[in-house]
Amino acid sequence: MNAQVLVVDADPGDPRPADRPIVDVAVGVLIAPDGAFLLTTRPPGKVYAGYWEFPGGKLEAGETVEQALRRELQEEIGLTIGAVHIWKVSLVDYPHGLVRLHFCKVRDWTGDLQMHEGQQFGWQHLPVSCTPVLAGTIPVLEWLAAEQAN
Ligand SMILES: Nc1nc2c([nH]c(=O)n2[C@H]2C[C@H](O)[C@@H](COP(=O)(O)OP(=O)(O)OP(=O)(O)O)O2)c(=O)[nH]1
């Protein structure tokens, strides 16, 4: 595995197989006109429940990243999104699986925000006030900070 993989909660006594399948995930970085971005908590019953992340979910068979993002944001938070700009892709090695995260910027949407899975949500600016943030999500905050510094 190359150096660009973020390894999370590694257990030296229980190495992970090198040939695990990669699970693709579409993630929405929803940015409001005032620059605030939406974070939500992982729902009860999921791995890392209660951790803060950007809304999104796994691609289903045959879906593009954009299609999956549209479906997930409708299902999870009740929003119909407009244009999707694929921004960054990262690979994260968790105990539960190896995921490839496709972070997409979204600046327009319609609908009322509804937490269909019992999540909490917050419109955040940097530095974020919510904690804990999911390990695979922390780099996004760094990318946003780097953009703001430019
Ligand atoms: N949505 C989202 N997932 C993230 C982020 N950062 C990060 O490492 N992940 C990881 C956590 C999970 O391993 C994976 C998302 O899988 P998930 O289980 O939440 O996806 P899903 O909603 O399709 O869930 P399900 O079908 O298993 O119910 O991506 C992020 O910012 N947002």
From TrEMBL:
<dbReference type="InterPro" id="IPR020476">
    <property type="entry name" value="Nudix_hydrolase"/>
</dbReference>
<keyword id="KW-0515">Mutator protein</keyword>
<keyword id="KW-0235">DNA replication</keyword>
<keyword id="KW-0227">DNA damage</keyword>
<dbReference type="InterPro" id="IPR020084">
    <property type="entry name" value="NUDIX_hydrolase_CS"/>
</dbReference>
<keyword id="KW-0479">Metal-binding</keyword>
<keyword id="KW-0460">Magnesium</keyword>
<keyword id="KW-0234">DNA repair</keyword>
<dbReference type="InterPro" id="IPR015797">
    <property type="entry name" value="NUDIX_hydrolase-like_dom_sf"/>
</dbReference>
<dbReference type="GO" id="GO:0035539">
    <property type="term" value="F:8-oxo-7,8-dihydrodeoxyguanosine triphosphate pyrophosphatase activity"/>
</dbReference>
<protein>
    <recommendedName>
        <fullName>8-oxo-dGTP diphosphatase</fullName>
        <ecNumber>3.6.1.55</ecNumber>
    </recommendedName>
</protein>
<dbReference type="Pfam" id="PF00293">
    <property type="entry name" value="NUDIX"/>
</dbReference>
<feature type="domain" description="Nudix hydrolase">
    <location>
        <begin position="21"/>
        <end position="146"/>
    </location>
</feature>
<dbReference type="InterPro" id="IPR000086">
    <property type="entry name" value="NUDIX_hydrolase_dom"/>
</dbReference>
<dbReference type="InterPro" id="IPR047127">
    <property type="entry name" value="MutT-like"/>
</dbReference>
<keyword id="KW-0378">Hydrolase</keyword>
<comment type="similarity">
    <text>Belongs to the Nudix hydrolase family.</text>
</comment>
